[in-house]
Write the structure tokens for this entry.
Amino acid sequence: MTTQNQTGTFQMTFGKLTRRLALGLALGMASSAFAGLPALAETKIKMVLNWKYQGPQGMFFLAQDRGYFKAEGLDVTFDQGNGSGAAVPLVANGTYDMGFGDVNALIELVAKKPEGAPVAVYIMFNQPPFTIAVKADSPIKMPKDLEGKTLGGAANDGALKLFPAFCKLAKIDCSNIKITNMQPNLREQMLMQGQVDGVFGYVNTIRFSAKLIGVDDDKLRYINFGDYGMDLYSNGIIVSADLVKNNPEAIKGFLRALNKGMIDALKDPDAAVAAVAKREPLIKVPLEKERFDATLKAEMNHPEIARIGLGNVDPVRLQQSIDILVDANKLPSTPKASQIFDPAFLPPVADLPKKLF
């Protein structure tokens, strides 16, 4: 009996060990198989903004802080920029995957070198913000008065790059207007000190940068490009050709997240500006809130958005603006609107904001 019981116990123990060993081997094989597969990771996107951190960029940071990019499987890094025109070549040369840049600089690039060029996928500034600011007591009241004067601007400034086209449409002689380059942070100071007669820039950028140095808006006068036939689009999300080819779903996810951030910013501008202040505590929050509101009204509120939604474009209007730039700047080719803007990555039109305030 004792021998039989011992034998039975041994058989039971051996059976358990066999099953455990088999299970262990199976788990080990499964682990080895999964170890050969790449881990699921967020797609990294590196983006350059148009300028230093300011209120009108709040939608980007709100989308980031509320986890909208993460929910799309994206790990997005934002860097400060050095001008809307500067963002385009940085995306074109692969330094960044995306940029918040001037679509007119993109038109010029595509006209000169279409192969492998970036493309815009979400236009945020749909009204022309380009201007030449002069002192309110200046004798310069119209474009013709600029002749014989000295104007200043940052090398990558969008308005400066568009000046030849403006000269042609406004019928003025650019050849006797002196252009001097300056650091962007010195622009308003040099104007008020009389070192230049006028400065190039975006209306709201100049207006609020002047306020930061104690210059009220009634001390300035603006010669706006849009008043002289330049009904152009401006800043938008520009993406690299490589990203379009290799990861179109990442672009769609980015725009879904950004669009949510935009909607949130419209509902709660204070939260949008607070998100900027988290990155740059030295900003003056009340002024940046005012800048954000002014940007909505003056640079993003084209009547067409009620029909097509913010982020989208009217292809006929875009083509007309392309033709203006090609003709005025004598560009070597005329890009098609589809080479400049691709709507395929946008959220449904029904989800795009139709009213900003």
